[in-house]
Amino acid sequence: MGVIYLDHAATANPKAPGVGPAMLRSLGDCNGNPGHGAHRLSVAATLAVYEARATLAELLGVRDPGRLAFTAGATAALNQAIRGSLPEHGGHAICSVWEHNAVLRPLLEWRRRSGGTITFLPPGPDGAPFRPADLERAIQADTALIALSAASNVTGAIAPVAEAGEIARARGVRLLVDGSQAAGHLPVALDRLPVDLWACPGHKGLLGPQGVGLLYLREGLELPPLVVGGGGFDSAREDPPDEAPERYEAGTQNTPGILGLGAAAAHLLRQDPHAARAREVRHLDALQRGLGRIAGVRLHGAADPRRCVGVLSFAVAGWAPGAVAETLDRRFGICVRAGLHCAPMAHEALGTLPAGTVRASVGPWTTDDDLAALPEAVAWIAARAPEIAAPAEAARGA
Ligand SMILES: Cc1ncc(COP(=O)(O)O)c(C=O)c1O
Predict the structure, then answer these.
(1) What tens digit of pLDDT does each residue of 52-91 get?
(2) CATH of region 272-396, choose from 3.40.1190.20, 3.40.50.720, 3.90.1150.10, 3.40.50.300
(3) Is 42 in the pocket of ligand 1 (CB under 6 A)?
(4) CA–CA distances in Å: residue 3 to residues 210, 282, 374
(5) Ligand 1 close to Cβ of residue 153 (< 6 A)
(6) Model confidence, pTM
């Protein structure tokens, strides 16, 4: 049985062509420590990391590549942005109910520690993540940060980030965007967006390897660094470097990951982002239609695929989401994800607690056959009683 991979929102599979060879280069002809030495291998590694950063800057519309710091992933970038933006005592933060735990948990931890408060923006109409007017109303004199995901990893719904940025800017409040489900899916020019901080992983829509991500900081904005240590220069200085990217890149970097991500960005630059987006919308539309026709299947989120990235959540009457996903994998070779997808408040909003949903997500390699196979398999499932006991894990929601 072949594998039908519909879990690109978890991690892209396969990666972009060129990622593997680029990672191997870092173990071969540029296997020196980047930024930490003057011999040929160290210089080769430094240049290769620089080139990867410049390629990503071109892809993401960032004039100065130095405004992109490499991190260990979106989670690390979001922790740096959130912890580096909120006050030690008191203060106020705003986020939507669609946030991933990579945003929610640092915010909740800050609230416990500082005694600050958080406003959670309620969902907007027709599957929209929130109403800009609610954001405007939520801003207080002591609001230190607005943190919003650009697209939900549960429903795929795209947030009005530019509008939120205009509101934040007009009120002088910092905006952090979690671009984890948007990067590589929605064309973006970060320097032209009114955002202060933008985070994403390398391994999802950017088609790179796991273990590497990015934090974009708009020009002129620096944060207290979360991790401090060696930087390869100015070692006698007590303080960490003053500016991005070195300020946020203490220690030896994930050179294999960075070079792999650079190769993935080079691949994406050779594609037409508007054609890729049109294909994603077509794919999502096909999935929505195919699944929507099946008796007992309920789709969650926005109905219009043009308002979503390639992510779709659904439930099958009488079946725990975990049992659906397990059956799809075991009987049909279809890989999807089930549970809460690390976004518990999103499921509270959808009414899908405690078990969550089944989530299918498309990628650039998804074929028409893949798109036909999922509804066919789900129809088979929906017509039957569960044949396996739902694993406790899946029933609780991962
Ligand atoms: C919306 C969103 N934010 C943050 C993350 C965290 O990404 P990572 O686990 O790669 O750090 C994810 C991953 O699923 C996500 O979907």
Answers:
(1) 999 999 999 999 999 999 999 999 999 999 999 999 999 9
(2) 3.90.1150.10
(3) no
(4) 20, 22, 12
(5) yes
(6) 0.96
